[in-house]
């Protein structure tokens, strides 16, 4: 049960109150926003092996999902059209169901070692064109469908968040073994993880085997 209570006195309820807390938007931050993919944006996308896609359903329930593949996995069809292959996942289909209900999407492209990122907003459509899907095959396996994004807004995002977080600095990498495995976390919070450590290791190894079988 959530014990935290917001004090209504400190809640910001309108844009005027929000903007009063900040300096005016820098002119360059406004000018940098484009409605199509210029040569630098296209180059950034071709170098990127990872993106996050934000979606919402009709009721405003939001979701952000990662997408990753070898660099250049997002195809650029023209200066206003991108295609993202949909690789095998957990079959929750949150992103895809949201797109059917509300096609507005936001993309954040990331390149390892780069502190700046590329943001792309637009409208998405789910397609199953066989020729298009075949062109995005990996290990002779084509995706079942693809997300075509009609671009409406493109701009580079500054490096502050990545520099504050030291995301790419090995000195700040954390030891994954200091937390339980993915499946143990899920089991602890649902049906309960096995008390037998050997059984838990077997379950974790099965997941690793599944990754190898179903990555594409």
Automatic annotation (TrEMBL):
* Gene3D superfamilies found in the cross-reference section: Electron Transport, Fmn-binding Protein, Chain A
- Where does the record place the Pyridoxamine 5'-phosphate oxidase N-terminal domain? 39-158
Highest taxon of the lineage: Bacteria
User: Which chain regions cross the lipid bilayer?
Assistant: none
What the entry lists under InterPro entries is as follows: Pyridox_Oxase_FMN-dep, Pyridox_Oxase_N, Split_barrel_FMN-bd
A Pfam family it matches? PNPOx_N
Q: What is this protein called?
A: Pyridoxamine 5'-phosphate oxidase family protein
Which organism is this protein's natural source?
Rhizobium fabae
Source organism lineage?
A: Bacteria, Pseudomonadati, Pseudomonadota, Alphaproteobacteria, Hyphomicrobiales
